[in-house]
Design goal:
Blueprint: H1 2-8, H2 10-27, H3 37-67, H4 79-103, H5 105-115, H6 130-139, H7 141-147, H8 151-169, H9 176-183, H10 189-195, H11 200-203, H12 214-217, H13 242-247
Helix pairs in contact: 1-8, 2-8, 3-6, 3-7, 4-5, 4-8
The structure holds zinc ion (ZN).
């Protein structure tokens, strides 16, 4: 079964997508590529912490949530349609969670670490404060138990989300017609880079993760068009060292 193969090989799928896009964005760059080993090191250290948190917190919480659904799904439900519905519902949840990370001050403190990156590429997709990863896993217990989502479906969604996140943060240049067509269905770099534009109105828009429909539907799609020279990061705030990033949520709040 394809679903079993995806669940068993999530790490490999992530590594292959990462390697492919990491190479492609250096061969075919959209914005000028920057060579900054210290930035790659920062993003790399946060990625290692994220990889460590997965078996320590994310997987156990997912297992507990999927083992304790609030109701039982009828066995007659068609598996393929149920899987697609679960992916759409978890993506809908991810849209609102991401929006909450921008609109709720305590959550924004953690999410700013992701936005302080002053360039975007595949490594930005795995640069999150460990606190955000743990909070997201904890909050996701609610939709999983309420909807009685099976463990396999959560892992398949996570695999898709990882691949999509690597893609929409990447600096890979696609033919304009291909990117335009894709952006009608899924979140492309042209949509997500605007979310990282160092202008508050754009940072607080384009929250969708996989399905691009959520932003137009909930009126959070920015009209800004991505340009190669677009300044990335947070308005008026500079990136920090690894230690500075880890401590950032616990320090006095700066601007968004
Ligand atoms: Zn964000």
């Amino acid at each position: 079964m394809l679903t079993e193969a995806i669940v068993a090989n999530k790490a490999w799928i992530g590594a292959i997508v990462f390697a492919g896009l990491f190479g492609a964005e250096r061969a075919f760059s959209s914005a000028p590529s920057i060579r900054d080993p210290s930035r790659l090191l920062r993003n790399g250290v946060l990625w290692v912490l994220l990889l460590a948190l997965s078996p320590a917190i994310v997987l156990p919480l997912t297992a507990i949530a999927t083992d304790h659904p609030l109701w039982s799904r009828p066995s007659a439900w068609p598996p393929a349609a149920t899987l697609v519905a679960d992916i759409v519902l978890l993506d809908f949840w991810t849209y609102w969670l991401h929006r909450a990370y921008h609109e709720v001050p305590i959550l924004r403190r953690f999410h700013r670490v992701h936005h302080l990156d002053e360039h975007l590429d595949t490594t930005s997709a795995v640069r999150f404060h460990p606190g955000e990863v743990a909070i997201s896993a904890l909050l996701r217990v609610a939709p999983i138990t309420l909807l009685a989502v099976p463990f396999d479906h959560v892992v398949i969604f996570e695999t898709l989300l990882l691949a999509e996140s690597l893609f929409h943060h990447s600096n890979v240049k696609l033919p304009a017609a291909v990117e335009r067509a894709l952006s009608r269905v899924i979140v492309t770099p042209s949509i997500h880079w605007v979310h990282h534009h160092a202008v508050a109105a754009d940072t607080n828009s384009n929250y969708a993760a996989i399905i691009s429909l959520w932003d137009p539907l909930f009126r959070t799609r920015s009209r800004t068009i991505r340009t190669p020279a677009m300044k990335i990061g947070l308005e008026g705030v500079e990136d920090k060292s690894v230690i500075g990033l880890l401590l950032a949520p616990f320090q006095p709040a700066e601007k968004k």
